[in-house]
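Appendix B. One record, verbatim.
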Amino acid sequence: MGFFNWAAPLIRRFGDRFTAENSAEIAEWLSPAVEPGGRVLDVGGGAGQLAVLLAHALSASVTVLDPTPEMIDHVPDISGVSTVTGTAEAMPFADDSFDAIVVSDAFHHFRDQEGAVREFVRVTRPGGLVLILELDPRGLLMGLIVFGEKLLGEPGAFLTPDEMCGFMASQGIDGLCEKLQKADYRFLGTVDKPKDAA
């Protein structure tokens, strides 16, 4: 995570990928599971750009979980947004704590993707949603991005949409992958577990 330690101020200043319009669309995707006052976990949420927008759009509480303290330090201190330093593979939350999980441009950074998804299932309530926004690794430009991430010491473990859907289904989160714009796609799935599961 060395890159994110020193890049945190730049990401906070210039990394606003999402607009109010984007966040309204994402909020609409999550709204079947997140009522006003609900709880959302932004895994690998960095400096909190998306979390701030979603807290407003959903009238919900959004927790940013990120392993890099320097990123967490740049999350704005506003009502409805909280921060926790930690990893996707070992979340410091009780079972069934959240109505939905969002992972934006971070899933390919997880060194143990299977362990992370087990944690998604554990901390999301039955019937809750998991939304993953990712980049499709196919194509020359994405090949260069994958190579660049590996040079920076990142896993660069990108999955194609078909691979993502199959992987998530194998972990108990059934859903669909949909192409968005350019190389982006989304996975949106429902956590299916018995209501009395531990």
